Amino acid sequence: MSFQLPPLPYDYQVLEPFVDKETMNLHHTKHHQAYVNNLNGATKDSDIVAICQNIKNYPVAVRNNGGGHYNHSLFWKWMAPVGSSNVAPTGTLKEKIEATFGSVDEMKKKFTDAALTRFGSGWAWLGVKKDGSLAISSTANQDNPLMAGVADVEMIPILGLDVWEHAYYLKYQNRRGEYIQQWWNVVNWDEVVKYYDNFASKNNPVPINQ
Amino acid sequence: MFANIARVLAQSSNKCLPLIRAKHSLPDLPYDFNALEPVISAEIMQVHHQKHHATYVNNLNVAEEKLFEAKQRGSVSDQIALTSALKFNGGGHINHSIFWTILCQNGSSEPGGELAEAIKRDFGSYQRMVDLLVATSTGIQGSGWGWLGYNKQLNRLEIAACANQDPLQATTGLHPLFGIDVWEHAYYLQYKNARPDYVKSIFKIANWRKVEELFGKARHD
User: Fold this and answer.
1) Checking DSSP bridges between strand A122-128 and strand A134-140, what pairing results, if any?
2) Residue A88, number of CB atoms within 10 A of its CB
3) Beta carbons within 8 Å of A85's beta carbon, 6+ residues apart
4) Cα A200 to the chain's mean position, in Å?
5) For chain A, which residues make up each domain, given as ranges?
6) Manganese/iron superoxide dismutase N-terminal domain location, by residue (chain B) (predicted)?
7) What is the average pLDDT across A18-29?
8) CA nearest to A8, candidates A63, A198, A19, A112
9) Residues 12-71, chain B, touching A (beta carbon < 8 A)
């Protein structure tokens, strides 16, 4: 049972003007597809969450491509066209964010900073640690916070932002700050809240279907 | 009277001199933005030079200023906190300054002279060296550089990969000769995800005359 590229939950152009159609197309059909293909070539194991959590037992090809597959599978779900989701977190997650960071805006500032200061390729994360607290961090390349012994901050990611240049270069070139600022417009907060309520708050990583 | 003036000048220059610190500046490209077409587009050259390299230069100057201030304050901790910024931006400035010079409009097809002999000796053939450098550069995960470098201690050429903007010599001891920037910003606008195509094509615009000169300097200095 090999890994599959998950279909996008929407058409390539729906995140315009914040994330452009050409980037969505290339990002999904080329970059994510390559991670899937390479992952299938690198391991016969099929539980991607377990792979990430035990990444030290796997060769670097699995770390790069397994991470890439997991991260991007959630990335597509973490975004949605404007108007299709609440524009801010709700419920328990909202309370938790306010208790931890002071406000949603403060959390976004910290997250933005993590995304800006990740030098080179990587991701910024909002996640839930083992003790149930929220934290923000970034990782290099296709690492993610599930990767025990690899990530600086081990936690269950409930929101992530790709800051590899391929995620924004066609539209934003070197202006990563502008990309991050615009990306907040398409965050699918309903999905993030679901991930918190159904998985992370119960100390379970968010599953992906493929 | 003149002795007094001289003394005042000497005293004031002691105060002023530390404030006059050389800042790094963006080197000019040795050619127009479109000179490397069709291998590297004018658009890429312009953004790469005027935005990316310029930012490394600016941020390096800021980091060095902060380093100087931290040293003045006697804060070792603050100096150490600046090492990442120095490596990122200093490495970026070093790497790109070399990069512009080892590319040219009508690259000579292959290296000559001492460099050609060394390549034959250490790799078997020019093509084998290219294949190795292509594979290394293409295989870098995330952002980084592939290098042909010179190991002065062992007197041999080596291929190496560096992550992010880690500068080759400070990181590995190798003298940089020919480097390939494989950060996505170096090729994405034109090649999209096809990094291998970009890496293979770059040899068409390699300035082997310059690389031979760098090799000569590294060997004989």
Assistant:
1) antiparallel
2) 15
3) A187, A188, A189, A190, A191
4) 14
5) 19-203
6) 23-103
7) 98
8) A19
9) 47, 51-52, 55
Is A173's CB within 8 Å of B47's CB?
yes
Confidence of residue B14 (pLDDT cuts 50, 70, 90): very low
Q: Are strands B144-151 and B156-163 parallel, antiparallel or unpaired?
A: antiparallel
What tens digit of pLDDT does each residue of A127-170 get?
999 999 999 999 999 999 999 999 999 999 999 999 999 999 99
Q: Give the CATH number of the domain where residue B193 resides.
A: 3.55.40.20
- For chain B, the first-to-last Cα distance in angstroms comes to 49
- State how far residue B172 is from chain A, nearest Cα, in angstroms: 19
- Concatenating the DSSP letter of every residue in B62-73 gives HHHHHHHHHHHH
* Spatial distance between the Cα atoms of A112 and A106, rounded to a whole number of angstroms: 10
State how far residue B58 is from chain A, nearest Cα, in angstroms. Answer: 14
Q: Which fold has domain A19-203?
A: minor pseudopilin epsh fold (3.55.40)
User: B50 in a domain, yes or no?
Assistant: no
Q: Which domain holds residue B131?
A: 113-220
CA–CA dist B9, A98 (Å, integer): 59
pTM over 0.80: yes
- Residues A157-186, mean pLDDT to the nearest whole number: 98
Which residue in B52, B163, B193 is closest to A120 by CB distance? B163
Contact status of A174 with chain B (Cβ, < 8 Å): yes
Provide mean pLDDT across the span B4-28.
65
User: What's the start-to-end Cα distance of chain A, in Å?
Assistant: 10
Q: In angstroms, rounded to a whole number, what is the distance separating the alpha carbons of residues A167 and A165?
A: 5
pLDDT of residue B221: 81
Domain tally for chain B? 1
3-state secondary structure of B197: helix
Single-letter residue type at A26 = L
d(CA A21, CA A171): 10
Alpha helices in chain B (DSSP H): 2-16, 42-47, 54-73, 76-81, 83-101, 113-123, 126-138, 168-172, 188-191, 195-201, 208-220
